[in-house]
Structure prediction request, 347 residues.
Amino acid sequence: METVLRPLTVVGGSVVLTALIGWATDLLLRKADARHSETPLWDLLRRARVPYQTVLCAALLRGSYDQAQLLQEHRVGVGRTLTLVLIGAAAWLVVRIASAVVETSYTRYARHHRDPARVRRVRTQVSLIMRVVSAVVGVLAVAAMLLTFPAMRAAGASLLASAGILGIVAGVAAQSTLANLFAGLQIAFGDMVRLGDTVVVDGEWGTVEEITLTFLTVRTWDERRITMPVSYFTSKPFENWSRGTPEMTGTVYWHVDHTAPIEAMRGRLQDILRECPAWDGRAYSLAVTDSTPNTIQVRALVTAKDSDDIWTVRVTVREQMIKWLCAEHPYALPRVNTGDAIPPPRG
Prediction:
């Protein structure tokens, strides 16, 4: 009877104690979240209750397994399995806690700073820092798991002896990967490009959607995703329209006849901009920039608060101006001059 009750008591007691401690901890976190609603830290920590309870249960079972006298013929295997579960759950818990702390710091920073460029820069740094922390914790957890096997501890000396040669070989083999890794760190802390920036790469216009330690994803205006190594942004020139202030100046060109009413076009441009909500009201101008034997080139300069609005202003001005010229001044549209051919002289 004792051989049945003791294992049930040890295992059941560990599970019940884990549930009670987990419930009490979650209750305290909920009270703290209700009392300090200005910070999301306590609510984010509540998301770590699953790895937290797993650590508690694995630790209690690992500590009381010898007293349970359960599966004694598999004592070493069960004990090692519980140790591996404990290490994995502990690494999971550390990542969740670090994520909660970092996310809380970013939220507090974003709340007190209204500059979108600085907020996007910090968001990029936070994302890459969490990836680095997760990778480091994962590597340490795997190393700790491997060290639980005696064979791995015995091979440690030989591994350390050959670490120098292996490091050189690995460095040569993974040269591009290491270059992307260091490029990702340079982008994160060098403030070259940030999440949400509007960039032009290889002739494609889009918004930076994701940045990792090895690759970067740009979402184009037609919903395509361009994925490229981050080393591209440290080795080749690219356009960043969000660098500094997001305000932009755009151009609109027309080819019209030499008799086009330039002063009337300036007045019409002002009327069009006043009726366009995307125009920020900073500046505008219209001037003749070039001429050919058949037409003249007219350029309008317009401004807007960001890249999306400048596109709207440009297409609106182009469309409304052409519509006005067709209705009010059709003679100003480009014309093809023709004439009778002159025959060559005889004899």
Remarks:
- The mean pLDDT is 77.
- Residues 171 and 212 are 20 Å apart (CA to CA).
